[in-house]
Specification:
CATH superfamily of one domain: TolB, N-terminal domain
Strand content: 5-15%
Number of strands: 9
Number of helices: 22
CATH class of one domain: Alpha Beta
CATH architecture of one domain: 3-Layer(aba) Sandwich
Mean pLDDT: 89
Structural class: alpha/beta
Low-confidence stretches: 1-21
Largest sheet: 7 strands, mixed
Shape: globular
Radius of gyration: 24 Å
Distance between the termini: 54 Å
Helix content: 55-70%
């Protein structure tokens, strides 16, 4: 049975009065470091990580506060770096750290707010309650931190932090497990996340966040980076789940973001997609993924300057996110800022030399500058590191072709063709190779195949298709998927 979490729940609390109270000049940015799991049971990590994620989400709704996203915060789990060092790396004014102890049906959350520059405590408090009280405890922590940093809340933000939530405790646990595996961002973990989100919905059919998690999962399962499901299989399910989440609770920015992603990438309805992205950002201005995906929406419209601004907002909120840093480099290529793209890609590679897409994006800039040998070297790394990503293979084939190594390009072309299936043919990748080989008729044939399979229209803005832009057949295709000519 669903349990109503009381708004003003009275919870026994222990305050830690500090011998030297410290008040910084101003706090406009902070990071919530991973809350420590004190249970002694590693299998409870999903719970402490979930508490961290929820606290970040609550605080990220405050437009006057820049809150570092989960991806970057989780890099410091178990880190021995000093708080001032972490704060410098993330460029924040303050740090929130704390612990979570769950014992049976009892939960204790302890949080501390620390001035980043001086490493001095500003505030500390401990909250105790039953498992069913967890959401209320989280809201209390978020409200207390908002009060301590002295930011002005809008009426909408105040309502979000004081709203009454109805959720079944078992459904909430399943949801946290779903988010735990979803955040790992591998194909296998996404499948596990799908199971937990469906389980949460079975346990509480009115739980909006479970539907939002389901929408996020289907959106990634159908994306080219994971390709666990075809777009025709995944995206209608993502859209249905997002609509259910919004119907149950119009507030979560995550649900509007996932809906916008599908409207752009599958429905080819850019007007509606744009409205949903703007609504998502209005509801949760600190949600990095909303800015990240909205940047690509603007790119589809040819608004590259605005797209770069949005991607840089996403980077500011999630500075250690490899995919955001990599995608910023790709946008710079689209905007013809090749040297800036090279610099950005090298920055991403410095964060993680084994991130395949950073090498892929660096190669795109090299190819635009006709530095084909350097592009080939980077793309060979990208293919190896990605486990034969079709996109990386196609780009390597293009680099071979453009450098005169036609036979090597044909080998990779045939490899992609042989790995195609009846439901998914790598059509846009194959089309891009044919463009590099100068066979525009075959390129258009494969693009039409991709159109029939409902490809993401973003493939058509790639530099690989620049030689086709004056072709009336290509212009008609661009028009049919809703992109501006």
């Amino acid at each position: 049975m669903a349990l109503a979490i009381a708004l003003a729940l009275t919870v026994p609390a222990v305050s830690f009065f500090l011998s030297r109270y410290h008040r910084p000049a101003a706090i406009r940015s902070l990071v919530v470091l991973p809350l420590e799991n004190l249970s002694g049971d590693a299998e409870q990590n999903y719970f402490s990580d979930g508490m961290t994620d929820e606290l970040i989400t609550d605080l990220a709704q405050i437009s006057a506060l820049r809150v570092i996203s989960r991806t970057s915060a989780m890099v410091y789990k178990g880190s021995h770096k000093s708080l001032p060092e972490i704060a410098r790396e993330l460029n924040v004014d303050a740090v929130v750290e704390g612990t979570v102890l769950r014992s049976g049906n009892q939960v204790r959350i302890t949080a501390q707010l620390i001035d980043a520059s001086t490493d001095k405590h500003i505030w500390s408090h401990s909250y105790r309650g039953e498992l069913r009280d967890t959401l209320s405890l989280q809201d209390q922590v978020a409200r207390a931190i908002a009060g301590q940093v002295q930011v002005n809340l809008t009426p909408q933000e105040h309502a979000a932090l004081t709203s009454v939530t109805v959720v079944d405790p078992q459904a909430y646990e399943s949801y946290l497990k779903g988010r735990y595996f979803w955040s790992k961002r591998t194909a296998d973990d996404l499948k596990v996340a799908l199971t937990y989100f469906n389980q949460a919905i079975e346990e509480d059919p009115n739980y909006a966040k479970a539907y939002s998690g389901l929408a996020d999962t289907y959106a990634l399962l159908g994306d080219w980076q994971y390709a666990v499901m075809t777009p025709r299989e995944a995206y209608p399910k993502a859209k249905a789940a997002a609509l259910n989440a919004i119907k149950l609770d119009n507030a979560p920015g995550e649900a509007h973001t996932s809906l916008a992603f599908v409207l752009d990438g599958f429905d080819w309805d850019l007007d509606s997609g744009g409205k949903e992205f703007r609504r998502a950002i209005e509801l949760n201005p600190g949600y990095a993924t909303a800015h990240h995906w909205y940047a690509w929406h603007l790119a589809l419209l040819g608004q590259y300057d605005g797209a770069i601004v949005e991607m840089k907002k996403a980077e500011s909120l999630d500075p250690l996110s490899l995919i955001i840093n990599s995608d910023l480099a790709e946008l710079l290529v689209l905007a013809h800022s090749y040297d800036a793209a090279i610099e950005q890609s090298r920055k991403t590679i410095a964060l993680d030399p084994n991130f395949a897409m950073a090498h892929n994006q660096l190669a795109q800039a090299y190819m635009q500058k006709h530095m084909f040998d350097q592009a080939i070297t980077e793309l060979q790394k990208a293919v190896e590191l990605s486990g034969d990503s079709p996109t990386c293979i196609a780009n390597l084939a293009r680099a071979y072709s453009l450098s005169g190594r036609t036979s090597d390009a044909m080998k990779l072309l045939n490899k992609l063709k042989s790995s195609s299936t009846a439901t998914y043919s790598h059509a846009s990748e194959i089309a891009a190779i044919y463009v590099s080989l100068g066979n525009m008729d075959e390129a258009m044939n494969w693009l039409e195949k991709g159109y029939a399979e409902r490809f993401n229209p973003g493939v058509l803005i790639r530099p690989a298709f620049d030689p086709l832009r004056s072709d009336p057949r290509f212009q008609h295709l661009v028009q049919r998927v809703g992109l501006p000519n």
